[in-house]
Amino acid sequence: MFTGIIETIGYVNGIKYHAKDITLSIDADKLDLTDVKQGDSIAHNGVCLTVTKLNDNGYDADLSLETLKCSGFSSIKVGFAINLEKAMQVNARFGGHIVSGHVDGLGEITSITVLGNSIEYWVKAPDNLSKYIAQKGSVTVDGISLTTNEIDGSSFKLTIIPYTLKQTIMSHYQVGTLVNLEVDVIARYIERLMLGDNLATTKNNNTPIMDLLGSSGIMSK
Length: 221
What we know:
The protein has 221 residues and is mainly beta. The protein contains 4 helices and 13 strands. 14% of the residues lie in helices and 38% in strands.
């Protein structure tokens, strides 16, 4: 589990291609690795990867072709900058929100506006994820726990302060940049609980949630 509070920026300094996956060598010299061992999890732009080998200034991690295809790593190359966060410890301060490290889909930066020292980004999410993104709610963008300030259809606005810009790769974003999105896991669980046994019936799997709530008497149609 992660919290979406980025610890530092790392860089890809090597890529080895295999038959069914790739191995990334990560330069993480600014990340405290004294408590990291082989088999531990680290989030890379919001993607949870397992440390397979520790090196002098970083570590190696394997990335499956499926993850490569479904995340922003599809365009990965040597020199790629990555947000890094080690897995949360039980005695650590919970500064962000619950982040699983499993990317739900790709968003696209559609607008960038400078507002004083801050920057405003509009991000278009896939239509199937938009229902989980609420105004003033939490969303994970490239592993960063952020608050949505405004919603417009499947797009949402982020206002990013200078500290976050400095500590993450967001200052590298351009219009058209694809970013990894993970929606709030609590929203997913609430949806599943509200649907309840209806999901056990195949014919109800595609029934709009508002119709199911109405038929259950929870909300009026």
